[in-house]
Structure formats: C-alpha cells, structure tokens
Design a protein that fits this description.
The complex is a heterodimer of chains A (about 500) and B (about 425). Chain A is mostly helical and about 500 residues long. Chain A contains 21 helices and 5 strands. In chain A, the strands form 2 sheets. A 3-stranded antiparallel beta sheet of chain A has the order 3-4-5. Chain A has a two-stranded antiparallel ribbon with strand order 1-2. In chain A, helix 4 packs across helix 6, helix 15 crosses helix 16 and helix 17 crosses helix 18. The longest helix of chain A is centred in the C-terminal third of the chain and has 31 residues. Chain A starts with 10 loop residues before the first strand and ends with a helix. About 10% of the residues of chain A have low confidence. Classes of the chains: A mainly alpha (about 500), B alpha+beta (about 425). At the A-B interface, helix 4, helix 9, helix 11, helix 14 and helix 15 of A face helix 1, helix 2, helix 3, strand 7 and helix 6 of B.
Chain lengths: ~500, ~425
Amino acid sequence: MTMIVSSKYWKICKISLTNQGYQIKEVCNAKKFLQKIISDSPELDSKLSPLPISQDLVNCLFDSFKNTNFNSIQESALAGLCLRCYVSYPILNACKKLASQFGNHQFTYRELLPYVLDDDGENLIILENDSQNTDSSKHFKVDKKGISKTIVYQHFTINILETFDQKSSRHLSLYNWAYRLTQQHQELKQYLSEYGFQVHSDWSLINQVNEIHLDSLTEREQNLVRAFHAIYRRDRRTQARRSKCLPPSEDQLHEMMDFLHVHKVKIPSTQVLLKDLQNLAQQLQQYDFWRRRGTPVAEPLELKDEETGQYILRNDLHSPEVNTATRLETEEFLDDLQHQLTVALGHGIQKSLQERVSELESSRGYKDYACKFLPALKLYYFHDMTGKQIAEQLGFKNQSHVSRVLQPLAVLSRARLHTVHKLLQWVLEVTHHLDSIEPSYLDPLTQQLEAFVDQEIFQAAESEMQSGKSRTMTSPYAQQLRNTLGHCQEKDS
Amino acid sequence: MIPSLPISSDLRRSMLESIWLEPEHYDQARQISEAVINEHNQWRTYLNGLALFGFEQWFRSIASDLTLDIRQCSLFQPAYANVISAITSIHIGDFRLCLVATDNILNDEVIFPQAVFELSDFSAHFYGVIEVREEQEHLIFRGLLRRDKFNDYRKLSQFQSNWSCSLPLSLFDPEPNHLLFNLQHLSPSTIAIPETALLPLDTEVLEEINLDQLLAHLQTPNHQISQHLNWKQGAVVLSCSTLNKLLYQWQKTPNAELQQQIYQTWQNILPTQLEVPPNSSPQISLMQWLGDLVNLGWQSLDTLVEGKHLNLAYRSKTLHKADICQTKVLHLSSQTNILDVMLLLAFHVEEDKRRNIRLQIHPSQGSGHLPDQIVVKLLGTSGQMLQTIVSGAEDDFIQLKRFKCRSGQQFAIQVEFADYKSQEWFVV
C-alpha cells in the first residue's frame, strides 16, 4: 500500500493517563484492515487522491460499516474502527477550540476531553437496526470469533457515526459532523456554562449583550438590558473604571428605574430591580445563549469540506497537509535547520526577556516591578517556586501581582515568535528569497517552520508549564532559559 | 524515507496571545468615545479604543523597526467612528490594517462593517479581530485575515451587500505572529485589492432618499444612519467625507445653517445633466501630453515650480514616480470675490496600457488652504457622474480617487464654486 492514506484512519486520539491530556495510539487492527481493502480494490487505490483524507475512502468505509448484510460482521466492525479513529481528531479539535474561546485562564481543553474522547479503539463494535424500532439501532460488541453481544455503554464516536447522514442535502462532511456534535454535546455545554463564565462578573455579562443576542430575550428583559447599558455602561466608560464590575449603586438603580418607567416597565423598588438583573445574569451564563444567531450567516463549519475541497480552508481545524512547494526535506538542510534552531532559540529567549523588561519599565502601573522580573523568573525556573512563594521572597503586594509581572507563558509565546522569525529569515536567506515574496510561498513556509519549532521546543515547554503543581522544568526551552538567566546573573554580579 | 518536517501545529490555541491593558489605555479610550453619538456607539468606540491602544503597545514592543501610524485612523475622526464600527486606516509602512473589537467570540462569527471591504477609502490589507476583556484588563488577539484570503472567501460564499457582514471566525488565522512575518516579507502589491471587489458608487441612489425625513430622524440620538439608508446609499454618503461630516454635526447639534449646507452638498452630489455633448466640445488629448504637446492654458509642473518657486510638498507624497503631470490655473470668480486655484492632472501608463489618472485641486500658491465648498466632479462619457469631492474649510488640497481609463475613453472634469462652473473634456 502506498502510504498516501493518512494515519488518521488507523491512529486514534484517546485520553492519556499522564498529564498530557491525550495521546495518539496506533490501532493495529485498523491499519491491517486498511491495507487489505486498498490492495483488494485497485480502483479505489487509483481513485485515491494524494490528499490525506479522501471522500472515496470515507464512503467506502462508511458503507461497509452501516451495511452489515453485505459484509461479514468482522469487516463491518473494522471499517467502523477506522472511522472511529478518524472522528477522534475533530473531537479533539473541537475541545481545543471551545477551551480557547473562553480564554486561557479558566480551564484548558484537557478538562473537556473526558466527556467526549471516550473511545480507546480497543473493542470492535457494530450497529444493528432494532427490529422493533427502525429509527434506532443497537450497539454490539464483536469478539474475535465474530460473535456479537449487545452493549449498554455508547461511545461518543459511535454516536457520531450512527447519526451521520452520508446523503444529507446539507453536505456536511463526516469531519464537520463530528466537530459539530462535539460542540453540541450536552455535558460539555453544561461544563462550559458552569465554569466558562466564572471569569466574568454578572454585570460584565450584561454589558456584553449585543443587538443579536437581544432578540432572544423577552421584551421585558430587553428593556432591562437597555436600561442597564444606558446607565451602567455609560458610568463605567466615563469613569474609565478598571477592575471587576461592581454591583450597580443605589443611584444607578434609581436612574435605571426612571429609564424603565419611560419604556413602560414598572418595577416597584430598587431591590426588585437588582434581583431581576441578577436573574437575567444567571440566564446569560448559559453557553447556548451566546451562540444564538439573529440572522442566518455563512456556516462556519462548512467553510471547507476536507473531502471534496469545495470550500475554502479553515485555519483553526488543521492546516493543509498538501504542501510540496516548500517542503524542506534534504538531510543536509535538516541538519542545518537543527543547528539554526539552537541559535534562534537563544536569540528568541534573549529578545523576549529584553522586551518584557522594557514593557514593564514603560508601564505606569508596573514600572517599579521591572527590576524584579528577572529575579522572579529565576526563582520560578531555578527553584520551582510558586507565585505565592515568589511574592513573599521578593516583596510583591500579592500573588496576582506576581502573575501579572512574571507571565511565563507570555515570555514563552514571545520567545517562540522571535525564534520562528529568526529561522524564517535564515531560510529566506539561504533560499535567496530575501526580497519581497509571494504569500503563496510565505504561508506554507511559515506554517512548517512553526510546526517544526513547536515540535522540537515549544509544545513540551507549554505542556510542562500547564501541568500544575507537579511541574518539572526539564524541557530544552527551560534549560536554555536557565542558561540565559545564568548569564544575566553573572553579568549582574 | 527522508525524515520530514511536521506539517502544522496548533499550539497557538492553548497559548493565546494576551495583551495587558494599562490605565492610560482606559483614559484614552474614554476620551475618544465621548466624541461619538449615543450610548451604543460610545461603548463600541470605547472597546475599539481599548483594542487599538493595547494593540499599539503590543506591536511597538515586538516590531520596533516597523512604522505604525494610528493618527490617521477612523477612531480619531468622530464622524467616521460614529458610523463605522471598526477601526480603519491604521498604517504600518505602506500597509493598511483594520481592527475590530469584540466582547467575546462564543458565536463563532465576527461582524465587520461592509465599508472596510467595499469602499477603497476604508479597505485594508489585513483585518484583525481583538477580543476586549474590559473587566479583566486584557485583550486577546483572536485572528487575522489577509485581504487575498477574504477575496477567495468572497468568491465562494453568497455575499449580501449590507451595512455589515458576518464572517466566520474560522476564516481568520489565529496566529498573530503572522502579521509581523507578512509585514516584513511581503509587499503591499502582492495583496492587491481588486477593483471588482469594490462597490461602484452610483449617486443616483440618493434620489430615492427623502432628505427631510432623514434629517428629522437623525435628530433623535439613538437613530443610526444605517437604519434609514440602504447600504448602496450609505456607501455614497460615507465616500463623501464632507457630507458625512455634516450629517454627524447635524446629529450632534442640528441647526438651520447646517441644514442649508447639507442640502447644498446633497445637490452637488446628485447626478447632473450634461450641458455640452462630449463630441462637439473641444477635448484635451492625454496622448498628446505623452508626446510633449501641451494644450493652451496647461503647463507642466516642473515649469511651474521653476517659475514660481512653489512649495509643492505634496508632489513627492501623492504622485507616482512616472507621472506625466500638467497643471492649469482656474480663476474662480464669484459675485463676492475672485480666487485662483490650481487644477493638477497627472497620470501614468499601467502595464495593461491603461492610464492611471490622478486629479487634484491646490491653492494657486501651492500652500495655504482651499476655500470651502469647491466641488469637483468626474463625469463619464455619457455625462453620468462617477465621482465627486467637495473641499472643506481646512483642506490644503483635495483629490479625486485615482481612476483608470483605456485608450480612446472620454471623461470630463467639472469644477464648481458658488456661481462659477467650468467643464473640460479629455480623451485618453
């Protein structure tokens, strides 16, 4: 078999027991099965486009999974297994996307995975129509001898396959279908409603309601929001108030009551108004509320159907894997690149630290802390100290001051920027592309360099930083950072 | 097999680019928001302000070698900040950037005003989305869309021409670093904004509007111009800076004098009937200019500079290197005064042989201000109006948007000032 078939059909994303969140595991059964069906059907092989994900293959696997009559039970189950591997990627991506939508402070995608990434690819499973109820089907586990028995627990991957309508007029690809179902997963949505909005106060949530969202509220609620905006937002803006939004003052509530009175909404007292507003805010904590749309818009999920290529590329799901124009693939070049990476990383870290210090120096609120930045970073990287310990040691006001000054993740992100940029400049130089180049050259090149740099350095660095109390700073990034900090120390002394 | 490099990475998603806001950003944003009308616009402008100032600080920190100029951006022009919900005309070198601030991105879509895509004055090479966490005092850079990617998307999707357009967030590149790489390694010409993507301005659409009614509505602060004009009409208003300014002033403090000015400007924009048919009127041939033959009354810019030592600082800024540039003095006489201004017409020949034409009006001394209310119109072959511009009291010069003509095409330039009117026909 020519390995033009993406490994996504025979490697599954599953929950990891270590702190990485997930791992990608090879599923031998699936791999053997794929090799077999491709060698058995030359016409499929020739039809397979060089694209890693092929619609023909998905169709073929799907037919064989759904129609147990025409195939042996074993084959059906194996085809299903390949598809289960395949849909585990959109599930993972949807979780990453959801977590990133809420920002980086509340939770990471790792907390979302247990709800949806529940298939380890260990069992062979088939669907069979329920003879009494034609709309639903039962899940059967198949053993080595091909004997099946009903199972109660339903993997999310199987639910996706079961509900996927291949011939639907909506033309959703299996990938997009899996992505969408993950976003609509009930328990996941509940988790987001519970934890996703924790960072916003009730009052900030009401501030955020816009015209589109207003439509889904009752008329009375709409008036409450308008009154709140007219008075509370105005005051917040004119006082240029920073910090957490406080509950509206008695004066503000009175003014809102007057506003509401004009709009014929009668509220007996400010206490009642405050209660009403709090109830409204409770409602706004529903994840679904923010996803409502006023008018039908371009459907984000269907920007690009990976299989047919009918739509344009999505940036956030995964990048195109067809990229022959700028593949940097000679061994000699890769050796040079490795060497340049070390140089670039040193440069990137150095530059990141310098920028952070000068940013703090020019910040009105934090300039007094600029001189404490490097010492704090040393305590963090050499002595594994927590924010609280650093605050005590260096005389910060509190822990949150430390995290605002220290920002190890921002330092990392900035180091990554300058590392990639340095490498990019080097590649352009050796390939004689220093003058202006076309976007079609720059885009894939940048993506590839980023992927390389992340794989070699920053993925591990980010993981160890996010792993909480048990973190150990042993990544190449942390080592290089300690080196640089060590040099700073020598210079200081 | 050769060990190959990985293809893509999604580290950016777990490592969002977060930008802290400083107290002064809040102060500046508040000041800017005061100038626009009604709470809704003020809050939006406030968030846009926070996004702009936070972005500025971030950008200066990572790219100190690039010139970022925010002074000309729409946020500092209340008449535009009031009607365009994004920040347009942020200049970085020769690139233009447009930013839009949003509260949250849970809806998977971002709303941009149509003007930033369809009107050349507001369009950009890059469009950025910034989530403003006003309460938590920071910004998150959510995505970047390069103009060529937008053009591709537009070709594929059914696009309705409205005041605003909703774009899926997935269209945007989540990696802010790419802005820097693009700015440093691409040139603006590689991300061209195709003319076909721009909305052709048709001033006839204004005839459908009841101006009295519109002005009456706009006296109520909560009314937006977008509630009363459709996008095609709105596009004409936005493209005429004088009219847009007047309407903004009207919303702030309506008075009889303003009303008069608005009517006057409105009339000037409406399509005019052609007085002299083009074929019978004398025409100036640009072809002859290429061969150094110059028509009566016209002289080259160089001759003029030599003779009068004019302070024509604009020349290097606004004219193309290969421009053929001719000037003519117009005596704008009205009942009350006589005033000279200089009409300047420059062009260069494009690769496809079309002439790319620039037309400006300057004070005759080459410096100082133009008088208020000089109207310049560009008319097409059959006399239809293609473009117009009206001078304001503080303009040191005015110009039509660059336009292109094929060889043999005709156009006219009409200049009006009080009761003065002149019309001159050109053949390309």
